[in-house]
Amino acid sequence: MSETCACVEAWFEAFFASHGAPTATDAARLELKRFHCEMVRDEARALARHLELPPRQITLAAVAGLCHDVGRFPQYQRYQTFSDPQSVNHAVLGVQSLNRHGALAGLPERDRTLVRTAIMVHNRHSLPPALASGRDREALTLARIIRDADKLDIVRIMLDHFNRPGEKDPVVFLGQPDIPGRYNPAMLEAIDAGRIGSYADMTSVNDFALLILSWINDMAFPWTRHQFFVRGHAKGLFAQLPELPQLATFKKRYFEYYAPTSS
């Protein structure tokens, strides 16, 4: 399996390199996604090891993590956006790219199916009922690992961009305006109801922070939720929000309900 993983890594690098960037800004955006893929690979591997999965499943977590966003490269090259509604479903495009290039040819058929399934559902609002039922335990576990690993690294990316001086990159922030004080109360309602927020409800950069805070409700593993707090992600996201009484009350409620208790 290690040789297979190395072959996938080599294909990934070549596939990324084949997507040229006409400007420095384009190159930086593509590099952001390349590094994100590598970080999700590492997060997925760490989570799989924490779960004490067998070596084969740890390798599959690494492969699926690395390849989960390969569709972003042709998506950006064709449409100059990372917004699926404005272009194409990047998960579907990624699986099509893997199939077209035979990137997973070194894996047994069962393992290819597991990796493709995890990639196909990593960006879904919720898992398809057939998968969520758990009838295929391996498929469900791998899908959950990739979704959790993806969330953890997206938080890292977004906090980095939140904290950069100057104007927010419209591609990274999916075109949301940076309007101080604006947020959609529907985001708070979703979190309080135990749901994840909707991209469709975003009205500002502040809503992007609230959307990510809502992901706590879709993190499948206690390890992921623990990392979200101990790495300072929750605190960092709240620091991006305006100082309003409603949000201060919400923050207190959020930490009381979700933050891990010290032993």
Characterization of the model:
The protein has two domains: 2-154, Hypothetical protein af1432 (Orthogonal Bundle); 176-258, no CATH class. 63% of the residues lie in helices and 0% in strands. It contains 13 helices and no strands. The protein has helices spanning 2-17, 24-50, 55-67, 72-79, 90-101, 109-121, 129-132, 137-162, 185-192, 205-214, 222-230, 233-238, 245-258. It is globular and about 55 Å long. The model has no long low-confidence stretch (mean pLDDT 95).
- Gyration radius (Cα, Å) is 18 Å
Instruction: Note the beta-strand portion.
Output: under 5%
CATH class of the largest domain: Mainly Alpha
Label the overall shape. globular
Distance between the termini: 39 Å
The overall number of domains is 2
Secondary-structure-derived class? mainly alpha
Strand count, sense and closure of the main sheet? none
The CATH topology of the largest domain: Hypothetical protein af1432
Average pLDDT works out at 95
Low-confidence stretches: none
How many beta strands in the DSSP annotation? 0
The helical percent reads: 55-70%
Total of helices = 13
